[in-house]
# Entry
Amino acid sequence: MKFERCRNCQNEAMRFVLIGNTFLMLFKGILGVLCGSAALVADAFHSAADVLSTYITMLSVKYSKRPADQDHLYGHGKIQFISSSITGVILLIGANFILIDAVKAIYYGHYEPPNPMAMLGALVSVLMNEGMFRYQLCVFEQHRSPAFLANAWDNRSDAIASVGVLVGIGMAVFGLPIADPIAAVGVGLIVMKIGWELNVEAVRGLMDSMDNFDSLKSIYNVARETESVAGVSYLRSRYTGEHVYVEISVQADGNLKVAEGEIIVNNLVQRIKNEIGQDAEVQVFLLPAN
# Structure
């Protein structure tokens, strides 16, 4: 890890993000109602979904730390993919409500220019969400936790949506009131897109889809460069949350003694772990070379 304190940053990050999202939910919601901005209220609803998804992420990360047992031989890490999917479903549901209300306002002409103070809510949202995105992305890079990656991109989607809200409110304030509900529609579409992508990635993770070719290639090169390894028969890996499991079968001289074979295996295991740079369980199978 880059810094020693990164080992404990998961819980700190979750608390920080939970507090930040709760503040934005209340701040934008109250300000949006007082200022008469449909776009800011929609953005507050987005933050409310973030609060719920953060709770889900906290629970999934805690549960995924449980050790492997008789029923879960690879541990409990894949619950983080389920967490990502739940977050995505929440966003999809929220997006539908946002879109319905905004389209109704546009269709029936129920819109007025909001108070200029609404722009402050959108600006604060942009800055805070971008900060939370960068913080959680750093946590993901250190721990490889899918739940943190999902939550990070959720905050990035909030930041992007809030930029649109800021522009929409600004246009509404300065003479184009329909821009406020149009901005709300933009928020809804962005939320829907992120929710869909999170579900797609969660399904890929649960189905052990092959999306780590570069990592496998580097592991293969490490194996071929390991002393006494004559070839690689097969190689595969799978993610269970933030942990990666690697299975590799290598060939070596069939006349080697058992102790010599163990040295090769132990050496290769350590080299692969160093190459991956994260928590990993590596199984090496040693076969005689043809």
Notes: Strands lie at 231-240, 243-252, 280-288.
